[in-house]
Amino acid sequence: MFNTHKPAQKLCLWGVKLIQCTIVIKMYRSIYMDDLKTRKRNLIMFPLGTVGRDMVYFLFTSCIMTFVLFTRDLTNAQFGAITAIVVAARIFDALNDPIMGNIIERTRTRWGKFKPWLVIGIISTSVVVYLAFNTDLQGWSFVWFFGVIYFLYSIAYTMHDISYWGMVPALSSDANARNQFASRATLFAGIGGTLASVLIPMFTIGDKAIGGSTTTAYGVISLIICIIAPLFLCFTIFGVREKREYNDAPPVSLKKIWKSITGNDQLLWISLIFLLQQIGNGLIVGGIGSTYIYFDFGYNGGLFSLFTIVGMSVTAFLMIFYPAISRKIPRKRFMGILLVISMVGYAFMLIAGLSMPAEMPKFWVVTVGYMLSNFGQYGFYLVMMISIINTVEYNEYLSGDRDEAIIASLRPFLTKMSSALIVLITNVAYMIFGVTKYTNRISDLENECARNLITEQDKISSIGSVINGIEPGKTLALLICMVVIPCVLMLLSYILYKKHYKLDEGEYERICGELDARKQKT
Fold first, then answer.
1. What whole-number distance in Å separates Cα of residue 185 and Cα of residue 164?
2. What torsion, rounded to 10 degrees, do the Cα atoms 86, 91, 97, 98 define?
3. Cα separation of 121 and 462, whole Å?
4. What angle do CA 55, 57, 62 make, to 5 degrees?
């Protein structure tokens, strides 16, 4: 017998299925839109947080030795002790980074594992840095004080630095999005560092120094920056929403750290390559550059600020357009282009130093050369950043563990190791070339001016006489150090990257696809 209700039943069934599909589509659309909104907000809030952090970083790591040279009268033994303290503290700091990464990996709070350490770290760092630049101690008393402060800074800065960069893998696993987060964060880090590198020399050295002396100026500037840094990091703390996926983390142990690092061959290679590149990249801003400018062109912080502005300005192009470039040009080919640009820049600097008189045309040739070399070095830095981060998925592919915080800790670990070696190279060069003979005389004049024993005009005139008495060979030696060493190390890092780093764009996508397939099976 014919069932007249069967078509109606089928129609109802299809209607129910249609409604279910509509609900599912709306649900996935809502999730997608929420993810898109979160990513857009994170792309604003996350990079803003590092502006003040990098101002503090530049103030302490790049300016502390300039502060010491030009405000303290130190014997060779005392200067050697300070050098040993910096190197030891930076090595300790570097070794502390993976330990801090493991601690963060095990942190479980309602605010996630990263943000509590951002808060603790930035507040303690600000206090320590302010104290470092606001002391009247001299001689061995200053050396002991300096040692305590430097080790405290190493611990405090590590807390928020590992936490900040460790968030990048937790913000997205998409390669393009990760490029955006890394490049934009690096852009804002560059803004903070560039602002500091321009303003600090301008208002601490020469006739524009705040309060009339370098000693007073550094005290005021450190206070301002140590207030700005926590305020900027609030954007990240309160505005960023990261993925809070907790795996069972093992106890904090050197064995776990060692296993995570040594079990990842690509992480080992990129760590060595990054270390070499960072040593070369940091020599100019690590102290030799400013001392060379002051010795060759005059004791004027404005000149070094101009040198920095021009040198750093071209990197803004990479900060903005690197994500687009990375979609068009493979990383290894792009590094070859960057290498050539840097070599041309270093050649400009060296030829000008060897053949031109110490006048403004020479200054501009050296500055343009620095701009070109810095463009290539900064491009290398961006490639290295992405290359380190991409070893997270490779680690998961090999062992099943992402170990995000531990792997992220390798970048600051290597940066600090490189800075220790930069300080060692720089200070040994100073002692070999007799730089402290002249800076001690300058620091005496700065401190006399700060105590109102001489006028600011007398100070500037006397320092000018000291600068004019510097032997030309010593200035040329500084230039050679800051050109030849970076050039050689950059070339070596390129050769090693091209030969040994295997996680190019295609291999990374293959690994991510394999990981997705594994997750679907489970």
1. 10
2. 180
3. 42
4. 100
Determine the pLDDT at residue 247.
55
Q: For residue range 429-475, what is the model confidence (pLDDT) as tens digits?
A: 888 888 888 888 888 888 888 888 888 888 888 888 888 888 888 88
Q: Which two tokens stand for residue 81?
A: 């002790």
* Dist. CA 273–CA 438, nearest whole Å: 36
**Spatial CB neighbours of 395, under 8 Å, sequence gap ≥ 6:** 260, 263, 264, 267, 401, 402, 403, 407
**Helix spans in 72-174 (H):** 76-106, 115-132, 139-166, 168-171
Three-state DSSP class for residue 252? coil
Decide: 381 and 414 in contact? Cβ < 8 Å: no
Both structure tokens of 406: 């531990």
| Integer CA distances (angstroms), 135 to 60, 74, 132, 213, in order | 15, 15, 7, 14
Nearest of 201, 204, 216, 231 to residue 53 by alpha carbon = 231
Cα(402)–Cα(392) distance, integer angstroms: 5
Confidence of residue 11 (pLDDT cuts 50, 70, 90): low
Instruction: Answer whether 52's CB lies under 8 Å from 192's CB.
Output: yes
Instruction: Return the sign of the alpha-carbon dihedral for residues 331, 332, 333, 337.
Output: positive
Q: What six digits make up the tokens of 198? A: 């321009």
Cα 457–Cα 459–Cα 462 angle in degrees, nearest 5 = 110
pLDDT tens digits, 308-367 = 888 888 887 887 788 788 888 888 999 999 999 999 999 999 999 888 887 888 999 999
485-507: per-residue pLDDT in tens?
999 999 999 999 999 999 888 88
Q: Which of 184, 179, 178, 240 lies closest to 45, judged by CA?
A: 240
In a 13 Å sphere around the CA of 76, the CA atoms on its Cβ side amount to 9
**In the structure, what pLDDT confidence band is assigned to residue 35 with cuts at 50, 70 and 90?**
low
CA distance 97 to 513: 31
Vertex 313: Cα angle to 311 and 314 (nearest 5): 85
Closest to 417 in 3D by CA, of 87, 101, 53, 82: 87
Instruction: Tell me which amino acid residue 214 is.
Output: T
Residues ≥6 apart with Cβ < 8 Å to 56: 125, 126, 129, 157, 225, 226, 229
The residues near 189 (Cβ < 8 Å, ≥ 6 apart) are 47, 50, 51, 53, 54
